[in-house]
Amino acid sequence: MLGGDLAHVTDFQGIKLVRIRTEAIITDDQVEALGRALDSVAEVPAQRAVLSFLGVGHLTSQALGKLIQAHKALAETGGELRLADIDPRIYEVFSITRLDKVFKIYDREQDALASFSPGRGAEG
Predict the structure, then answer these.
(1) Crossing angle of helices 28-42/61-76, nearest 10°?
(2) pTM for the whole thing?
(3) Which residue of 4, 26, 66, 110 is 20 to 30 Å from 17, comparing CA positions?
(4) Which fold is adopted by the domain 7-114?
(5) Exposed/middle/buried for 116, CB within 10 Å: 0-12, 13-18, 19+?
(6) CA-CA distance, 100 to 43, in Å (whole number)?
(7) According to the model, what pLDDT value does residue 123 have?
C-alpha cells in the first residue's frame, strides 16, 4: 500500500487504482498523503490511473491542487488520471471551478476503469 492510511493503491489490469480511505482531505497531513500517493502513480511514464473518492465528503483547495499536479504530470508522459465516485458537494466545486472540464469524471469506479478498455469512449 502506498500513500499511508489515506489512500490504498492497487493495480487493476495495468491501471493504477487509488482508493481514498478517509471521509475528508482537509488537514495538511492528509493533503500531503494524497500528494504522495498520486506522486507514486505519476512517476510511472504513460500510467493510466483511476482515483476513487467513494465516501469522501470534503476536500480543500490544496487537495484540488494535488489532483491538478498529478493530472499534469501524468499527461506529460502520455498517462491519464480519471476520477470516480465523487460526492455531489465536491462535484459542485469541480463544476464551479470548471475542473469538470479538465478531468474525466465517472459516477462509479467500475465505469472509470472500463473507460480505458479499447473501443470504449471516454465520455463520463
Answers:
(1) 10
(2) 0.90
(3) 26
(4) Transcription Regulator spoIIAA (3.30.750)
(5) middle
(6) 24
(7) 44
